Each structure stands twice: as structure tokens, then as C-alpha cells.
């Protein structure tokens, strides 16, 4: 089938940098899904995403949809024709609705009688007729931020639309979008090529734009930005740091990247490097430069959007702007050093943390109390943990953090170092917020782990205590993230802990502020659900988690996680799988009989050898399970249960549990209850599917 390249370009004012990359990807996805649905084949789709344009270039698009076979089931023959054999009103209505004649129908034999059916072929539509509406639908479906209106148009887009290109090969496809008529006139670089340019053929689009100083493909431009920035490095002397997020943001700002290297006064290097990098990266979109040891240097790289006739003048302008930014940072730093960190604590009593939970100062004192309680578990002195918690938020009142909010915690560590505060405390201060997300590390120091746990526990338990848990998809205080953070810290710590005790301590720390007496139980269930999410997300089955939790009432994430891993691996053994099936059968028998598992067993009532064998095997397994659990060997406990496969299989082959003799029946149920009780010490295997 014949093919041609198809071009769709929507030209507009500069698009939001934060949305450009995703918008380009989303548009390609939307176009591809609609093309697949339409039946129009193509070789590939190349995205167009630059500051002033969004679109796609579809390579080798088929010019015609394939014909479609149509089968339309009409009324039955009895309903379709009257007694004289004339078409009924029902049949005529069906034919008129579908644009066919009664004579076009054929009779089809079915189990319910003879029905009338139309079988035909619908010719495929031309790509030229399909693509305009398809592109409009794709644009309307984009999840763009802050749509707006302009001029007299009632349609909305994230920025005013200035031009529209829609071509199939050399031909312009007529279309109207955002009050713009399609054509073959695009625009090049705003400075180097300010007028309109003609796209001769759709396939020549990228080369035509590149000749006018526009790299329209996001990925190509991104690679160029990264390569050009790194080209400014000088081997053995300094390296330009190009982190992905900044490269993406710069890529969304420029159409024709040109690298320029500037410098700033080396005296600014006395300011913490994170503040200088934040000034360059967040405010100016500059790449910072480091020496071979990784220390920040007084150089930077900016990416201009044009080839200047006087690059030195452009560099000078950027240096002037940066000097003002860094001067502010140095002023904040010098000012903050005049005030001891601890002296800021009193000011926290003037900042409301939550209307029902008091001030930020109240929160820090509660966190200090919680930290002191859990510190021994981490071999940290309680007073040290308490002091670290009280200092952890003090830098929020510093000038530096007020200007650079992303430096909270980190600046506290810098101030503490300068004041000579004990290193264990100083290094922990920037870890109180960790982990800040799924990709962030957990605290590296023991004191940092303690104060991070205490801070999160206070927030989480406190909000439950005043009746403000997360609901549905709404979690304004990020309590789910706090719970996952606590679980990750405990997992990295690697030792068994009882989160329930920590929850109780955090609830007690709320004092008279607590109004919800059910909060401790609710928080336990909340952690249980989060742990389940973590483990199922790691690939373990929910039923395995439930089986382990049924036998492990204490909220010990490390032990529970370890047991889930061991049980999942052990289910690869056919013996344990069959024992699990037997456990499910036993559970059903006991439930139906409403048997009391505490009923004593009378060996004298055993009438079958299989009963005696199972009772003996159960006692032996009980001894082995008890020893294994005391030794912390969950795998050995499961192996002891797996060894019961033979006796259990023989029992159900030979023994009728619901015997006619009520005493024998009760004794057999008691024996099964004892066995089920043994399972309950390890895991509720009845919940595990065979």
C-alpha cells in the first residue's frame, strides 16, 4: 500500500518548561494509540517538542484505511416479515438506520431460529480525511497545566497558538484548530530566522527547521545540550556537572543551544556549595563546575539560545546577574552565623505547626520525647537524640532557608558544625527529613535514623490522634509517605523492632491534644497496610503477607518481611504446598463444626492407625517448630510443617472426621484443632493458594 510522511505542528508562544517534555511524550502516545485504533499503519512517530512548537512527524503513513467487514444482526425472520411476506416496520426501521435495503439481508440459522443479517464491506477512509480530526482529538486529550483563552477563541490551550501546519507528503490537509487554518508555513528561530518558512514536504520538516537554527526534536536537542555543556570541561582540571533534571529544563528553554562558560568571584566559595549550586541551578539554570576532587569551582556554564556576535558580552551579562544572586546568598550566610542555632528554638513557639497540634516548638519537643524513647534501640544516648530533635527544625528560621527552602536541614548541619556542636548531632540534622521520597536514601547515621523516625511518628500519630487521617486519594500531610519512610528506615536498620510500642509512645506524647482514643489501633492498621503495599510492590503475593501476619501479631516490619520472603521461597516445595491445601481443608472442617480448638485429645478414642500417626507427627512437629522459632529460624519451622504432608494425606485418605460416634467425631476435630493451632504459630497456611 502507498505511504507518505504526515506532519502536524502546532506553533505557539513559549510553552511552560516544566510541561514541555511530558506534553511531547503524551502527544506521541495519543497519536499512536489513535492511529492503531484507526487501522492506519506507519513505520514510526517522531515527536516535535520545542519551546515554540508541539507536534509529530509520522513516517510512512498508509494513505488508506483497510476495508472493514461489517456484520449487522437484524430482527428475526418472523418479526421481519408480515403474513404476506412484506417487510415489517421493524425491518424497515433497521434498514433505514443502517442505509441498506431489505434485499441486502441474508437468512442465518441459529439455535433460536432464523434471523436476518447484513454482511458487507465498508471501504476504508483516506488518511487525508482521518488525520485532521485525529490530531484535534489528541490535542484536546493532552493533560496540560493551566489552559488559557486568548483573543476571540473559546478553545483553550496552555499558550496562545500562532500557526498550524498539517501536511501529508507535499499536500496541505485542510484543518482548523484554535481558530488557525492549516498550511505549510512554519517559523524558524526567533532571532536567527524571524520570518515564516515554507515546509516543502512533510519528511523534510526536521532538516528544514535545523537549517533555520531550530532543533525541533526534544531528545535530539537534549543530547546536544548535554554534550555541549560537557564539552566545556577540561580534562584533569574541571568537569561540568549535567544532572538530568537541569538538562531537561534547559532543553525546554532553548531551540538552538550555544554553550558559554563564565566565572564568579572565588570568595563566594566560602558559602556552602549547596547554596551556590541552588542559586545557579534553580534561579539561573546554569550548570556548575567541579574540580577533580568534586569540590565546587568558581566557573559555570550557561546555555544561550542564539549564536551571539559578541559572546563575551553575553557572558559578562550572565556573570553580573549571578554576582547579585551569590551576594544575596553570602549575606544570608554571614547573617545567620551571628545567631546560634539553639537560640532560634524559642521562635518556633510562634509558628503554628497545626491548629490542633500546637506550634512547631511543641512538635519538636514531642519528637524529642519520642526520640529519647527509641534511641537505645539504635545505641544512641537518649539525651543526644532529644537534643538533635530540638535542633533539627531550627534552621527553618534562618535567612538562608527562607531564601533557599530546599536547603532545610542541610543548613542546620552547617551551622552546627560552625558552632562546634557534637558531630553525631550536627551530621544528623540534615537527615531528619529523610527519606524525602521513594528515590531518596534513608539516614546514614544512627542519630539521624532516630530523629527521622521520631519526627515522622509524631506527625503521623498526631494527626490520627486529632482525627485527621488520610482519606481515599487525599493525603495533604503526606502520611502515607511518612509511614513508608519509617518502614524503610527500620528495614535498613535491619533489627527486629515493635512499631506498636513506638506508636503508643508517640500517642502518649500528644498528651491532652489527643481526641481520638482509637488512634493507636488505627495507626497500627495503617502501617500494616503500608507494609503490605511495600511487599506486594516488591513482587510478593498478598496472601503470603496475610498468612504471615495472622501468626505474627506484633508489628515488626523486619521479621514480617523476612518471613514473607522465606514463606514465598518455601512455597516452591510441593510438600509445603500440599500441607497448605490440607490446612485449608482442616480450617473448613473446623469452621463448619464450630469446633473448640482447646478441647483435650483422648488418645484412647483413636480408632485408625492414621490418627495415631498424625497425632504423633503433630507432637514431633510442635517440638521442632518451637525450637526453630526460638532460634529465629523461620525456614526450619516451615520445614517441620512440610514434613507433615505424608501423615496429613494418609489421615484424609483413611479417616472419616465426621464419624457417627459423637465422642470419636469430637476427638478427631480436637486433634485437627491442635494441628491447626500448630500452623497458627508459624503462618496461616490456609490463606495460601495451592
TrEMBL record:
EC number(s) per entry: 6.1.1.14
UniProt entry tagged with the keyword Aminoacyl-tRNA synthetase: yes
UniProt keyword ATP-binding present: yes
Domain DALR anticodon binding: 583-682
Localization per record: Cytoplasm
Keywords for this protein: Aminoacyl-tRNA synthetase, ATP-binding, Cytoplasm, Ligase, Nucleotide-binding, Protein biosynthesis
Highest rank taxon of the organism: Bacteria
The name this protein goes by in its record: Glycine--tRNA ligase beta subunit
Organism: Litorivicinus lipolyticus
Gene: glyS
Amino acid at each position: 500500500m502507498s505511504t507518505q510522511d504526515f506532519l502536524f505542528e502546532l506553533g505557539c508562544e513559549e510553552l511552560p518548561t516544566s510541561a514541555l517534555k511530558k506534553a511531547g511524550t503524551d502527544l506521541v502516545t495519543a497519536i499512536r494509540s489513535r492511529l492503531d485504533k484507526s487501522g492506519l499503519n506507519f513505520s514510526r512517530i517522531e515527536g516535535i517538542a520545542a519551546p515554540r512548537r508541539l507536534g509529530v512527524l509520522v513516517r510512512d503513513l498508509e494513505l488508506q484505511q483497510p476495508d472493514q467487514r461489517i456484520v449487522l444482526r437484524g430482527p428475526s425472520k418472523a418479526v421481519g416479515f408480515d403474513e404476506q411476506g412484506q417487510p415489517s416496520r421493524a425491518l424497515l426501521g433497521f434498514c433505514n438506520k443502517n442505509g441498506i435495503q431489505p434485499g441486502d439481508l441474508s437468512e442465518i440459522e441459529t439455535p433460536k431460529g432464523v434471523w436476518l443479517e447484513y454482511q458487507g464491506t465498508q471501504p476504508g477512509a483516506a488518511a487525508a480525511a482521518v488525520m485532521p480530526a485525529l490530531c484535534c482529538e489528541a490535542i484536546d486529550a493532552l493533560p496540560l497545566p493551566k489552559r488559557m483563552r486568548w483573543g476571540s477563541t473559546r478553545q483553550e490551550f496552555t499558550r496562545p497558538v500562532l500557526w498550524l501546519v498539517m501536511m501529508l507528503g507535499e499536500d496541505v490537509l485542510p484543518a482548523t484548530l484554535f481558530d488557525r487554518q492549516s498550511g505549510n508555513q512554519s517559523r524558524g528561530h526567533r532571532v536567527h530566522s524571524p520570518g515564516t518558512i515554507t515546509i516543502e514536504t512533510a519528511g523534510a520538516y526536521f532538516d528544514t527547521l535545523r537549517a533555520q537554527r531550530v532543533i525541533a526534536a526534544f531528545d535530539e536537542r537534549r543530547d546536544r545540550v548535554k554534550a555541549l555543556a560537557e564539552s566545556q570541561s577540561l580534562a584533569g582540571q574541571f568537569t561540568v556537572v549535567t544532572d538530568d533534571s537541569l538538562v531537561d529544563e534547559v532543553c525546554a528553554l532553548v531551540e538552538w543551544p550555544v554553550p558559554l562558560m563564565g566565572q564568579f568571584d572565588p570568595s563566594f566559595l566560602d558559602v556552602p556549595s549547596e547554596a551556590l549550586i541552588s542559586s545557579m541551578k534553580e534561579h539561573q539554570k546554569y550548570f556548575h563546575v567541579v574540580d577533580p576532587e568534586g569540590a565546587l569551582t568558581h566557573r559555570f556554564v550557561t546555555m544561550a539560545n542564539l549564536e551571539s556576535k559578541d559572546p563575551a558580552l553575553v557572558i559578562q551579562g550572565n556573570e553580573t546577574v549571578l554576582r547579585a544572586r551569590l551576594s544575596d546568598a553570602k549575606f544570608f550566610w554571614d547573617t545567620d552565623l551571628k545567631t546560634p542555632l539553639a537560640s532560634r528554638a524559642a521562635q518556633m513557639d510562634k509558628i503554628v505547626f497545626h491548629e490542633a497540634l500546637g506550634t512547631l516548638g511543641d512538635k519538636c519537643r514531642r519528637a524529642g520525647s519520642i526520640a529519647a524513647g527509641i534511641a537505645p534501640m539504635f545505641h544512641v544516648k537518649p539525651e543526644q537524640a532529644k537534643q538533635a530533635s530540638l535542633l533539627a527544625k531550627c534552621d527553618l528560621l534562618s535567612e538562608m532557608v527562607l531564601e533557599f527552602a530546599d536547603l532545610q536541614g542541610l543548613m542546620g548541619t552547617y551551622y552546627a558544625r560552625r558552632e562546634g556542636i557534637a558531630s553525631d548531632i550536627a551530621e544528623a540534622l540534615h537527615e531528619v527529613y529523610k527519606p524525602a521520597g521513594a528515590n531518596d536514601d534513608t539516614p546514614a547515621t544512627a542519630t539521624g535514623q532516630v530523629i527521622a523516625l521520631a519526627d515522622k511518628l509524631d506527625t503521623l500519630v498526631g494527626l490520627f490522634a486529632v482525627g485527621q487521617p488520610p482519606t481515599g486519594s487525599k493525603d495533604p500531610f503526606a502520611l502515607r509517605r511518612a509511614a513508608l519512610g519509617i518502614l524503610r528506615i527500620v528495614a535498613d536498620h535491619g533489627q527486629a523492632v515493635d512499631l506498636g510500642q513506638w506508636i503508643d509512645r508517640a500517642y502518649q506524647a500528644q498528651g491532652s491534644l489527643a481526641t481520638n482514643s482509637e488512634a493507636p489501633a488505627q495507626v497500627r492498621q495503617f502501617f500494616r497496610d503500608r507494609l503490605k503495599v511495600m511487599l506486594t510492590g516488591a513482587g510478593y503475593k498478598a496472601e503470603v503477607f496475610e498468612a504471615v501476619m495472622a501468626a505474627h501479631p506484633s508489628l515488626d516490619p523486619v521479621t514480617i518481611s523476612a518471613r514473607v520472603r522465606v514463606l514465598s521461597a518455601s512455597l516452591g516445595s510441593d510438600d509445603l504446598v500440599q500441607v497448605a491445601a490440607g490446612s485449608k481443608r482442616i480450617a473448613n472442617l473446623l469452621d463448619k463444626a464450630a469446633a473448640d480448638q482447646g478441647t483435650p485429645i483422648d488418645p484412647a478414642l483413636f480408632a485408625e492407625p492414621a490418627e495415631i500417626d498424625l497425632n504423633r507427627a503433630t507432637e514431633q512437629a510442635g517440638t521442632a517448630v518451637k525450637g526453630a522459632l526460638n532460634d529465629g529460624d523461620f525456614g526450619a519451622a516451615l520445614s517441620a510443617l512440610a514434613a507433615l504432608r505424608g501423615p496429613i494425606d494418609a489421615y484424609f485418605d483413611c479417616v472419616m472426621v465426621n464419624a457417627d460416634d459423637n465422642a470419636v467425631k469430637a476427638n478427631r476435630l480436637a486433634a485437627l484443632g491442635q494441628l491447626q493451632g500448630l500452623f497458627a504459630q508459624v503462618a496461616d497456611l490456609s490463606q495460601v493458594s495451592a
